[in-house]
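Journal club prep — side note

Before the paper discussion, L.F. wants everyone to see what a predicted structure for a comparable chain looks like in C-alpha cell form. Sequence:
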Amino acid sequence: MENPHSILKKVFGYDSFRPGQEEIVSRLLAGQDVLAVMPTGAGKSICYQVPALLLPGITIVVSPLVSLMKDQVGALVQAGVAAAFLNNSLTDNQKALMLHRAREGWYKIIYVAPERLEMPGFQRFAQERQISMVTVDEAHCISQWGQDFRPSYLRIKAFVDSLPARS
C-alpha cells in the first residue's frame, strides 16, 4: 500500500522528509487545513505533492507565476505524475483540451492562477470532479501589502467553500 514515505522515495527519489515536511503531510492527509510558511528551498512543494498523490481526487494548486507552473508541471510529468497547468499561456483550444482531459480524470495535480478560480467554466469543472485539496504556492503573494498581491486571492476561500465536498 502506498504511503507518504513510499511516494517520497518512488516519485521524488528522496529517502526521508526534511524537517517539518512530514508533519505537514500527515496533517493534510488527516484532512486538516494547514498553513505552512517555509523558506525558499525548504521543500514546500513536496508538502502538498505527496498528499496529492495519496488523496483520491484532484489537487488544485494556486500559483501566481506561469513560469513556476511550467517548471513544477514539467518536473512532475518527468517523475511520472499526471499534472497539468491551465493559464493564459495556452491557446483557447489547449485550454479546452486540458479541461476536457481533467474532466476525464487524467490529472492528479492542476496548477492555476488565482483568477482561474473565478471563471465559470473552471467553477463548473470543480463542481463536477472530486477536489481533494486546494493549496496556494508562493504565499508571499497573499499579502495585501505585497507588490505581487492580486485581489483574486481574497476569493480563494469562497471557491473552497463552494466545493460540493471536501475529501
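L.F.'s comment for the group: Helices lie at 4-12, 21-29, 44-54, 66-78, 92-103, 120-128, 156-162. Keep this in mind when we get to the figures.
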